[in-house]
Design a protein that fits this description.
- By secondary structure, the chain is an alpha+beta fold.
- Helix content is 42%, strand content 13%.
- It folds into two domains: 134 residues; 270 residues, Aminopeptidase, CATH 3.40.630.
- It has 14 helices and twelve strands.
- The strands form four sheets. Strands 11-6-1-2-3-12 form a six-stranded mixed sheet, sandwiched between helices. Strands 4-5 form a two-stranded antiparallel sheet.
- Strand 2 and strand 3 form a beta hairpin.
- The longest helix is centred in the N-terminal third of the chain and has 37 residues.
- The chain is elongated and about 95 Å long.
- The protein starts with 6 loop residues before the first helix and ends in a 24-residue tail after the last helix.
- About 10% of the residues have low confidence.
Length: 501
């Protein structure tokens, strides 16, 4: 006696791969026909893997319409898959009833199993659909830079002064070729090895922001949270990448700079077009003076600080990313911690917690340390041991460590946490249509060769005068004119294991 097919097994097989349940139930042609859409999907997935998952992900982020279209396809494919599961169940059920009667209790159990399998299918498709919708909503909140950064009003720099020129590598003079005397054997010349470039060339970028040959991103850390009035931009770092070589530099702007130049649209707010207070307070002052600082309630403060840094640096800013204290902690925790090669011990017996609940004592020893979000923030934020300039250097060290360890695909298991972070703790002013170009350029930056410049005394003093502002602009403009820096050295004699690359 031939055993009849089980409807539950047929449904399970079609859950694993549409069409398998029909083949099991004795309908091979039907099963192969139903498998064709899945085979086509597998081919597309294979092509995506060949192209690179990160490239595909960036492409979807750039094009919200394509992302929503993909979500629609996902919904349609779920409906198709669910239909194949039900069809396999019914096909096997008909064959089973044709051979022997089925008890009512068995039928109820089989129906319950079918519902459970459909629930599993809903979960399989529902999770990526939910994440896709969250992605679309987060991207929709990315504001274009044009809504934040005013048109630059700074003038071209004067002729470069010798004291501001980057160091040049002395040219090697080759001796003129010698004519050998008759009968003399001349050994073959030893070929001179050409040193490889410090960094690989950047990908081609045709976006409008690449017109000056650079990618300039302003990175802001906002001291915002419980127990804090308004918002202060305590961390202001300009990341600049040369689009020919992908060499990068980090410029740290002290929070306590005064007399910073303002862009033309808000220069009338203060005498001489200069902000007389500490730079970290400009965001709040702009929010208090809508009559003097353009922008709406969501952008006015960011527009003011971005415009001021743009004027001071003398280069157009292409985008800005701001994160508050809680957001920084969450990002580092999403990475699983941050390896930092600490050059010298940091001790602070009254470090204020980011949630405003009090203070703690921190002690971060020299050497390679893996810090969680709170400790990484404390390392970047504490200023009781040294000063604001020492803190800026530590912040740049944290940024380079983050770039060295950042792997987008490794964050996928925490993607929902990152969405929550982006919605409440992150501000992004970027050109969505060229996010892919920005990501590809950033991916080619060598984290061990990022130049780190801090505009600190005695060379750069505050209050700023015209000569200091010109010196800052020249430093930014000419940072890539000299030879590439040597790879960032690790602290000698560091205890503990070596930091991961």
């Amino acid at each position: 006696m031939t055993s009849s097919p089980s409807p539950v097994v047929a449904a399970l097989l079609s859950l694993l791969f549409p069409g398998l349940g029909q083949i099991y139930a004795g309908q091979p042609r039907r099963g192969l026909f139903l498998a064709l859409p899945v085979l086509a999907l597998l081919v597309l997935v294979l092509l995506a893997v060949i192209a690179g998952p990160a490239e595909v992900l960036v492409g979807l982020i750039e094009n919200t319409v394509a992302l929503l279209a993909l979500l629609l396809v996902l919904v349609l494919f779920f409906l198709y898959h669910a239909a194949t599961i039900v069809d396999a169940y019914r096909t096997a059920d008909r064959g089973s009833r044709a051979t022997r009667p089925v008890a009512a209790s068995t039928r109820r159990a089989s129906t319950g199993a079918l519902v459970a399998l459909l629930g599993v299918a809903t979960l399989i498709y529902g999770v990526p659909a939910y994440l896709g919708l969250r992605t679309a909503f987060v991207i929709d909140n990315v504001r274009p830079p044009g809504s934040v950064f005013p048109s630059p009003s700074f003038l071209p720099l004067p002729t470069l002064e010798p004291s501001d020129a980057p160091p040049q590598t002395p040219a090697v003079t080759q001796p003129p070729p010698q004519t050998p005397a008759p009968g003399t054997t001349v050994p073959p010349a030893t070929p001179t090895a050409t040193p490889p470039p410090a960094t690989a060339g950047c990908p081609r970028v045709d976006a409008g922001w690449a017109g000056d040959g650079r990618l300039n991103l302003l990175l802001l850390g906002a001291d915002q949270g419980p127990g804090r009035f308004s918002l202060r931009t305590d961390t202001m770092i300009l990341l600049s990448v040369d689009l020919q070589t992908c060499r990068a530099a980090l410029f740290g702007f002290p929070r306590n700079l005064t007399m910073v130049p303002l862009p033309g649209e808000s220069a009338a707010a203060y005498p001489g077009g200069r902000f007389p207070e500490f730079l970290f307070g400009l965001w709040r002052r702009a929010m208090e003076q809508p009559q003097n600082f353009p922008g709406d309630d969501d952008t006015r403060g960011w527009r003011a600080i971005g415009g001021a840094i743009q004027e001071l640096a003398g280069v157009p800013i292409d985008g800005m990313v701001g994160v508050n204290l809680n957001g920084f902690v969450d990002i580092v925790d999403a990475l699983g911690g941050l390896w930092i090669d600490v050059p010298r011990r940091l001790r602070d017996d009254r470090y204020p917690l980011e949630d405003g609940s009090g203070s703690i004592e921190i002690d971060i020893r020299r050497g390679c340390q893996k810090l969680d979000g709170q400790m990484a923030l404390a390392y970047a934020r504490s200023r009781h041991q040294d000063d604001d300039y020492g803190r800026m250097r530590r912040q740049q060290l944290v940024l380079t460590a983050f770039r060295r360890q950042f792997e987008p695909m490794a964050l996928l298991p925490r993607v929902n946490d990152l969405f929550n972070l982006a919605e409440s703790n992150l501000w992004m002013f970027l050109d969505q249509n060229t996010l892919g170009d920005m990501a590809r350029v950033a991916a080619r930056v060598d984290a061990d060769q990022i130049e780190q410049i801090t505009f600190a005394p005695p060379r750069f003093t505050s209050p700023l005068d015209d000569s200091t502002i010109t010196r800052i602009r020249r430093t930014v403009a000419n940072v890539f004119d000299g030879p590439a820096p040597e790879p960032t050295p690790r602290p000698s004699g560091s205890p503990g294991p070596s930091c991961p690359p």
